[in-house]
Design brief:
Layout (H helix, E strand, L loop, with lengths): L1 H28 L6 H4 L18 H25 L6 H23 L7
């Protein structure tokens, strides 16, 4: 039993060290020649006019988050649907509760008019 956890521990240490070492090597080997042209704002080869910080409508982000939630729902329900014949009754109830919670979120977003594209 302890031997199995040793493999998990070694894998975890390697998983933490590998990206850290790569970032450290890139930081040591990268050229460090600051230049005003490199620090300036670049947008499609054209100099920016006015402030470079522009407000975007939050509705776009909300629409994207709602899409992401239902996309993840599809990914989570697919294995459940494939194994439907072998699932016990309690697992089917869990799936129904999961779908009902997501339907409640959909109704909430619909009432808040988050799904209307303006």
């Amino acid at each position: 039993m302890l031997n199995d956890w040793l493999y998990v521990g070694v894998f975890f240490v390697i998983a933490m060290l590998l990206p850290g070492v790569a970032i450290a090597i890139a930081g040591l080997l990268s050229p460090k020649k600051p230049d005003p042209a490199k620090s300036s704002t670049y947008e499609c080869g054209i100099e920016t006019v006015g402030p470079s910080w522009v407000q975007f409508k939050a509705q776009y982000y909300i629409f994207t988050l709602i899409f992401l939630v239902f996309d993840v729902e599809t990914v989570l329900l697919f294995p459940w649907a494939v194994a439907y014949n072998q699932l016990p009754f309690f697992a089917i109830l869990e799936g129904i509760v999961f779908v009902l919670i997501l339907l409640g979120g959909l109704v909430y977003a619909w009432r808040k008019r988050a799904l209307e594209w303006i």
